[in-house]
Amino acid sequence: MHPRPARTTPWRRAFAAEARAERPDLSLLCLLIGTEADPALDDPGMAAARRRLDRLAALLPAGPGCPRAWAAAVAELLGVRCGFRGHPGDYQRLESSLLHQVLRRGRGLPILLSVVWIEVARRAGAPVYGVALPGHFVVGFGPHDAYERCVLANPFDGGRVLSALDAQLMVAGATGAPLDPAMLRPAGVLDIVRRVLNNIRAWAAARPEHADVALWAVELALLLPAHEDRLHYDRAQLLVRLGDFRTGAAELDTYAEALAVHDEEAADRVRGQARAARARLN
Fold it and tell me: Rounded to two decimals, what is the model's pTM?
């Protein structure tokens, strides 16, 4: 299923191409997200952000040793010396989901601070990856194929190393269920980018006046490989809310076609929404 045409820009074309690369670049994808929110972010601005990551990596000691030593070294640099950490108020700011702003402010959501940890540590040769714990993104240090024994660090708390009990309590607080070792699996680059976009959509959903932000976040998510068909429905609803009834109705028709394959009754309901959207053109 293909999305109806959305606004196309060189940045979106670059985002789509990078998302389909054999080894997608996490920092570049996050910076390209930033171009949607910040018209002032251009090629030189993105290059400057990537140079900042390079400079930070150069400040790390050469090969500090075991995963725990790596975690401590990165926390000392980023959390203590550079002051990267989070605050509850950061959840209320769109800037907290934009990598270039997080690099500038030293503040952000757990997942964006984790991107900084990952990109800096990776450049220095650390065995590092993201860990998408329910409700809170953290960083793992250690071999990817031995994630059950990884050392977890919480960038939102300045890189504090989490004990097994800390991780268990974090998961229990978010889900009410015990930690499953599968939750410690390394998160892929596109999984991280998808979660960043979901965070932006959640921020905008709580602020109806920012439906335009929700729209571009959905449209970027549609550029990711193997996206969910449901995103077409979400895009249609946003288009209708923003007054683009014609395009919204067309998107609803497209979603209804896909839905009819396994749920004709639900497809009819969506077709009814498309008719209602077209009626608003009169």
Answer: 0.92
Low-confidence ranges of the chain (pLDDT < 50): 1-4
Instruction: Kindly list the strands in the beta sheet with 186-187, ordered across the sheet, starting from the edge strand earlier in the chain.
Output: 160-162, 151-154, 136-141, 128-133, 186-187
Q: Please tell me the distance from the alpha carbon of residue 149 to that of residue 184, in angstroms, as a whole number.
A: 9
**Residue 95 CB-half CA count within 13 A:** 13
* Contacts for 180 with CB less than 8 Å, ≥ 6 apart: none
Instruction: Determine phi and psi for 211, rounding to 5 degrees.
Output: -60, -30
* Amino acid at position 253, single letter: D
For residues 243-280, b (16+ Cβ closer than 10 Å) or e, as one string?
A: ebbebbbbbbbbbbebbeeeeeeebeebbebbeebbee
Task: Look at residues 165, 153, 140 and name the one whose alpha carbon lies nearest to residue 80.
Answer: 153
pLDDT for 80 equals 97
Residue 65: the pLDDT is: 86
Distance between CA atoms of 50 and 272, rounded to whole angstroms? 48
> With contact defined as beta carbons under 8 Å apart, do 181 and 148 qualify?
yes
